[in-house]
Amino acid sequence: MNKHITQRATTASLVLSIAPLALTGITTIIGLILSSSVVSATNDSVVDQVNITVPVSCTLSGTGQNSHNAEINNGLYQPDIGSTTLHAFCNDNEGFAIYAAGYTGNEVGGTNSDKLVGTSASGNAVIESGTATTAGSPDISNWAMKLAILQDSGDTTGTNAFAIDSAPNVDLPSEAEQSATQVSFSEYHVVPNEYVKVAHKNSATDMTATTGGVKLTTTYAAYISKTQPADTYSGQVKYTLVHPSTADAPIEPVTIEDAYSKAGKTKLNGYYKIQDMDSTICSKVNQYSGDGMAEVIDVRDNNIYHIAKLADDNCWMLDNLALDPTDSTTAANMNASNTNATQEAITNLLNGGSTTTGWSNTAVANVTTNFDNDDSHIQPRINNASKDTLVRSYGPASTSGQAKVGIYYNFCAASASTYCYAEGSGVDVPDTIIDAPQDICPANWRMPTGGDTGEYSTLAQKYTNTATETNSLQYNLSTPLSGRYYGNATSGQGSYGGWWSSTYYANYYSMYNLYVDPTNAYPNYLGIRSGGHSMRCLMAD
Fold first, then answer.
1. Does 14 share its domain with 76?
2. In this structure, are 343 and 431 located in the same domain?
3. pTM of model > 0.70
4. Where are the beta strands (DSSP E) in 175-226?
5. Whether the predicted pLDDT of 424 surpasses 60
6. Do 15 and 113 have their domain in common?
């Protein structure tokens, strides 16, 4: 708003006149003028800021999707089979792109996704993707697709007039095909078996429902070989809008098991391995919304864990970690290829820490029950007494509202002996305090970050805060109220739960925790490193 400077000026004049007095022949005139002038200036101003956010909105619709029906005799070719209008709106200033792929069985990129498959019970005949119009050698049936710009009659002015320079550009097929002589999708082209960009616009569209947006038509053609068996052949093409126009190809969500399978992973004891999860697999997985959870196995001890992709687009463990480094078989199986730590750190962990003799020379009973002595910061400590104890829990990994407590770890143990500093000065105190660099999560997984901007906080912002709601953090992360271990006793089982993060809190003896109870979730809670808390793991980047 404009700044107004107001100057206020006031002049006061007072004249006192005393009439001539007759005083014994003397006439006296007394004149008194009192005058004052006051000028005041103020610089009063108000700055009022208005922010209006227009969200990105992009939609793609189709009209006439069921019009592609034809009856073609052997040896004949037919173009222009049906016509579907694709109508796209997108107000992203950097434009948008439309991708297409053969689609079958709710899957892009499957064995038959780019084929027309016979529907009769007796045959497995297919019609391949291709552009032949006559018999070749060999004589193979094929089908193809093309797109064309559709200009509305009367829509010849305004920001979305479909003139050539403002119409969507039609792109070449995928890079793998560009070395060959190919036509663009403005002519009949092979149906791709994975997402390929078929059209794009480098700027936003008018969002008006009638004349706005961008319109394309899509049609198909087929050649039927002289030997093609009689049948009804069906297939689908899926068109997907992404923005901006430079965005990568869309990712077709699949279940966790399907993603493992597509990545060529093998099973152990009937389960896929948690260590085989990676960013490629996680990126293709459906977000959990009542389904999409999977069970995987930890190759170090054969423990089974539920995992799912949550609303922050990360893959999480939905059970508390139950790895027991004091178990001789587990310890023998732990190495840098299956654990999120170097071999040196794992060796130190199994020997009880880098500066002390530790549990390799101490009875397990003593190690697992004594968290309150002077070594509880610098020695790894666990408590496995409640490993299989069932407590109140929420979410998909619970059974009848209960789940296992798992193992309590002090932070020295949780960090695979890499974060074992004394409380106070002296032993192994680092020059610079950093987040824990390693931990005992499976390979390709790690402890989440904590604090106000950490991964626990990001996840909490996606959900509500009441555990009984299916859209709560407690439900979707499937948190058992596993309590904690402190001193030489458990507390809070069935009432609350706490999970380590890798992030320190302003000093080297406290770490951020995730704390939950039935009505609250605190992603920036604090835990003293000598105490025993549960662990969850997040799929690493």
1. no
2. yes
3. no
4. 189-190, 196-201, 214-223
5. no
6. no
